[in-house]
Design goal:
520 residues, alpha/beta, nine-stranded mixed beta sheet, 13 strands, 43% helix, site-specific DNA-methyltransferase (adenine-specific) activity, DNA_Adenine_Mtase, methyltransferase, transferase
């Protein structure tokens, strides 16, 4: 069984005690690295116990292990060997470094994309771990001891579950910038259920996230596919600019049991370095996916020069100050003709003018935009602004657009807002039913959208304001007369009290006379 909330909170509290002065944003690199090594080591240990019976044929066994798992961790290099060395007071950072280096040397050629450089963020010489070798060693020992307390079960997703929990906690506690790799699970749930709606039975499904972050959008989407457990039924593709986050995503996918053969992630800038398929010898043959999902950085500055011949941006080139539509058009370009995509952006993409207005108009005229879903503000850790989910398809026949105003459905949790289960269910069911819902949703015709000059601002289509009850004029008149009478009585009483007062000197009497004039 997965870890319950009490045990998760215990792990988090223990981590905070052991990290000392290390900032959470830095500390997570070590925690996740050691956690991931434990996961790989556990699989390797099981493999040795199951397969290794002939000590004279160890080379062949190593080759078999490398092919099956994609890597090799030999007896003596296992996580349990680290624990034993700690018990004997013999553990050193050199032992850990040597084991990580050995791991890198034995990565299978076909697993290079999934595993090469995945432990690069574990800097054992960093002063952040401690001021000297002894203190740095003790910090690592504390992490190993903590990870050793977590029992792994082959039939469960304990480590993956904990990993997702800690990603969220590190995001919340590490400041604004650290939140860029994390999409709240309730948002992932909405995008996943919309992406897979009516397609849950597909036996072959390719997922792509061009700003993959921690990989949670892909994992959540796959969890709603009925064939997700079948070997090679789902392929996971993604791209991430920040190397540390790219490593984090690979770990997250692998610790959720995704086989390395089904993971194709790239560490690159999505907007400047597209997938290598693209235009080859003048022929445009992009890699296409069944589903594309993204929560890219909002209003990012980008280099939009010389983009006129980039096939991704045929419908327009996003302004250099805001790359929102550049990400959107990139996603749409890589979508299969019968695929579906969702992208989370700021509300500005719905109504901003200039080039963005023209791109929006082109998308609407091509029937690409299927739904616009407004979310509450303060549901992301790295921004307080309200966000919007756009649902797009490549070759829709219908030209209407479903608008959903879900901005008021949430519960307040400390300084943030959180979508409840009923809020998620309402959004998804409204998307599936695609009918008007009073004060919540409206299916707008193209005629309506043209009348609004292709402005997609949600309040233009969904009036979510509550009706003001009619005013009872007669009762209002009675209330005013009653207040007037009460005011007259109070003034009369005040004048009576003031009339009985006499100033003790000329200045006091002058002040008293002024007060009497006020209440005449």
């Amino acid at each position: 069984m997965a870890l319950d909330s009490r045990k998760k909170a215990l792990v988090w509290n223990t981590l905070n005690k052991t990290r000392g002065k290390i900032e959470p944003a830095e500390y997570k690199n070590y925690v996740f690295g050691i956690m991931f090594y434990k996961y790989l080591s556990s699989k390797a240990q099981t493999w040795w116990q199951t397969h290794f019976h002939d000590k004279d044929n160890q080379a062949e066994q190593l080759a078999n292990m490398q092919t099956e798992l994609g890597y090799v961790i030999q007896p003596g290099d296992l996580f349990t060997d680290w624990q034993d060395a700690i018990k004997r007071n013999e553990f050193t950072l050199t032992q850990l470094a040597d084991d990580l280096e050995s791991f890198n040397q034995y990565i299978a050629p076909q697993a290079q994309t999934a595993l090469t450089g995945i432990f690069a963020d574990i800097d054992l010489d960093s002063s952040r771990l401690g001021n000297n070798q002894q203190s740095r060693t003790q910090t690592i020992i504390n992490m190993i001891d903590l990870m050793g307390q977590i029992e792994l079960d082959e039939a469960s997703d304990v480590l993956g579950d904990l990993y997702e929990y800690l990603i969220g906690m590190f995001s919340i506690n590490s400041g604004t910038k650290s939140g860029e790799f994390y999409t709240p699970h309730q948002v992932s749930e909405i995008t996943a259920q919309i992406l897979t709606s009516g397609r849950e039975e597909l036996s072959n499904y390719s997922l792509y996230d061009p700003a993959i972050g921690s990989g949670s959008l892909l994992l959540t989407t796959a969890s709603h596919m009925n064939n997700a457990e079948k070997k090679s039924a789902i392929k996971y593709y993604g791209q991430e600019l920040i190397t540390t986050t790219y490593n984090l995503a690979r770990m997250n996918l692998l610790m959720h049991g995704i086989e390395y053969q089904n993971i194709v992630l790239r560490n690159a800038d999505t907007l400047t370095d597209d997938w290598p398929d693209g235009v080859v010898d003048g022929i445009d043959s992009p890699r296409l996916f069944d589903a594309v999902t993204a929560n890219p950085p909002y209003s990012l500055r980008w280099d939009n020069t010389n983009r006129e011949h980039d096939p991704r941006f045929k419908q327009g080139i996003a302004p250099k100050s805001k790359a929102d539509y550049a990400f959107l058009l990139h996603c749409l370009y890589h979508l299969k003709s019968d695929g579906r995509m969702v992208i989370v952006l700021s509300h500005g993409v719905l109504f901003r003018g200039g080039t963005e207005h023209q791109i929006r108009k082109n998308l609407l005229k091509a029937h690409n935009i299927s739904a616009v879903i407004g979310l509450p503000k303060k549901i992301f850790t790295n921004t307080s602004i309200p966000t919007v989910i756009l649902v797009l398809e490549k070759q829709r026949q219908a030209d209407d657009v479903l608008f959903i105003d879900a901005s008021q459905g949430f519960e307040k949790v400390k300084n943030n807002n959180k979508l409840r289960q009923q809020d998620i269910e309402k959004i998804v069911s409204t998307y599936q039913n695609r009918v008007d819902v009073a004060k919540y949703a409206h299916v707008a015709s193209m005629e309506e959208i043209i009348k609004n000059d292709y402005n997609l601002n949600i309040p233009r289509y969904v009036d979510s304001l509550e009706d003001t009850p009619p005013i009872d004029v007669k009762q209002l008149s009675r209330d005013i007369h009653q207040l007037d009478e009460e005011q007259r009585q109070l003034t009369k009483h005040m004048n009576h009290l003031l009339g009985e007062l006499v100033g003790t000197d000329d200045e006091a009497q002058e002040t008293l006379d002024l007060l009497k004039d006020v209440f005449k």
